[in-house]
User: Fold this.
Amino acid sequence: MNARRRFLRVLAMSGLTLGLDACVSSRYLRGTSPGRVVVIGGGYGGVTAARYLKLMDPWLSVTLVEPRDTYLSCPGSNEVIAGIAELSMLERPYAAVCGRLGIDKVNAAAIRLDRMRRRVILADGTEIPYDRMILSPGINFRWNAIPGYDEAASHTIPHAWKAGPQTDLLARQLRTMPDGGLVVVTAPANPYRCPPGPYERASLIAWYLKCHKPRSKILVLDAKTRFSKQPAFERAWRDLYPGMIDWVSSEKQGRLERVDIRNRSVETEFDSFKADVLNVIPPQKAGALAEQSGLTDESGWCPVDPLSFVSSLDPAIHIIGDACQAAPMPKSAFSANSQAKVCAAAVVSILAGERPPEPLLINHCYSFVAAEEAISISGVYAYSAAEKQLTSRSGGETPPASDRRREAVYAKAWQRNFRAGVFGG
Assistant:
């Protein structure tokens, strides 16, 4: 029986939970010195990884590199845009989780990786050594993918796909829009962060407009032919917002060709649309640090072996969350959380000289279609050793005729528990 299994068996036999006070060090069991693990990125993936490393081995040296004191959550940002919640609802302070578990948080930006020497280089020139690294860099945008739309343009025409000032900008534009106006939302081709996100956004904007500007319309121009939870979303749109939301697929001229910032309009292959509020969600790729460090391939994302989420391009670096290629698992906060737990267990095993256990991962995602109505989707993913990739084991989503109000109750409880499970409090 290997050290990790002995450790878990000791916990099970003693009735202890895997918490800090009750945790017996796996290092004590394996009789080795602790390793140095650096986690870069303080989102749902990075914080979960740092948290579980310390829960699994309190003697492990864990450093979280993240320049902010408070994380702003993307999950929940559509509710802020629709006026259902305040921006402060998205704040996730690091103090509780880092302080309680003894994670060494460095408030600085990592600007470069010295992969040969296994060093993280900070903005002030400080170097942090590591034995293993977990990189959770999130996403960056492909600013050159849409003619007429770049980073400068996003200060006028928001993407609102990263929480913060962009969320507030889109919310303010909706508040000042005239009744009877047109909101245009453009959705990118796969893969991108939060596949159902554009359609939850359209739903909640429709909820706001129905309450405050009922003569207004929403047009969703999509670079895809179908989307996540489509039957449930379309049923909700028919029930709640009849005639208010039009979805146009790439087969029906939904693919974006050009953005005209000055006229607040977009062009497709055969038509153009002038909006009162225009929300352009650009195509995406892995975060800048991953790309600059040579950890992405031609797809723009980071190839990994999901047994341990170790990079296919560097055996000392693990990559989790939105940045990694883990299809068919979607890019979501819950996926990042699930991957982080698997990755943390793998790192502890590797430092002990053991093979990581084969993982079983879960994704579960709620989408609000109104202030008090929601739908959901879930999936279970197993590891294929032969293919070194994940396969879909099972899954399901809210049936179109389900009780959406009950789902909203579950969604709100899930939000609270998920937030507490990652960031504490």
Observations:
- The first helix runs from residue 3 to 14.
- The longest strand covers residues 373-384.
- The two ends are 36 Å apart (CA to CA).
- The CA atoms of residues 235 and 400 lie 6 Å apart.
